Amino acid sequence: MSAKGVGYESPPTSGPKPKAGKNIWVLSCSQSIPSCSYPAAQTVEAAKALGWGTTLYDTKLDPSRITEGYRQAVAAGADGIASYSMDCSISKAGLVAAKDANIPTVAAEALDDCGETLFSDIVSYTQGEFPAWWTQYGAAQATNVIVGTDAKAKVITINQVDFPMMMPTLAGFKAELKKSCAGCEVAQEVEFTVADIGPKLQEKVQQALVRNPDANAVYVVYDMLALGPDAAIRTSGRAKSLFVATAEGQASTMTELRSGAIQGAGVGIPQGWEAYATVDTLNRIMNGEKQAPSGMGLQAYDKTTNVPAEGRWEPPLDFKGVYLKTWGVG
């Protein structure tokens, strides 16, 4: 991929004036996991830029708490609800309550998998709706693995199976690996759920590495190395020989790549941009308008390319500056 990435364009440069005095609820998938807490914080930041009040609710990756979060937002008279990485199928009761109360709900990185439309909208990308973008994201991770192993990959995939939204990217990864690399294969699929995060997941990955001494690559569906896989890789003594297909580019992951603690490459996820697009869409819905094209695309990174000197990966455009100007607040 180029320095600009694939499909990145400007966020919307025109839009309705923000509705004053609104209060929204932000449902975090888990405040203990950076892949969830960062986009939640960015959503709060964007809403505050519009002068809106916010309530942050931690669902702790628990479907019952997801439903409770929506219901509490409804009871509190929220003007809108924003969520991240929570599919319709695990949020249905809460979404029904919000819809019945005429409260707009906008999600980022979620599947509309209820058989009926309950989300008011889901953030989209230049590649299309979330499933299309997410599938291409997985394919881009596979390309990284193919290049990083000289087309001789024997991959251990680490897949979370209790959230449906994880499935399209894994499918995209496996399809691209099969299509584009005759000398590549998936050596083993390690499946885990929320309950496994931590020592159990570490043990699962350790066992997979022992069973597959010729494995030369590890794929993670999101940047959860610190939740168990990283310790397993270090314990194996193979950190320097395994190519790690990293994901969105959390600060901890980028630090490990820059320092050489792990070898690999990833595909950035513009989580801050997704958050701002979520708030922008809520504002448009409140003004009787539809979602505007977000401009988000795909961009690969490694130790030397598309990586900042410090901190997390960031997308190739100043999306915040554009949104603030569009909203008339910057």
TrEMBL record:
Q: Which Pfam families match?
A: Peripla_BP_4
Domain Periplasmic binding protein spans what residues?
41-290
> What SUPFAM superfamilies has UniProt attached to this entry?
Periplasmic binding protein-like I
Identify the Gene3D superfamilies for this entry: 3.40.50.2300
InterPro entries xrefs: Peripla_BP_I, SBP_2_dom
Q: What name does this protein carry? A: Unannotated protein
What's the source species for this entry?
A: freshwater metagenome
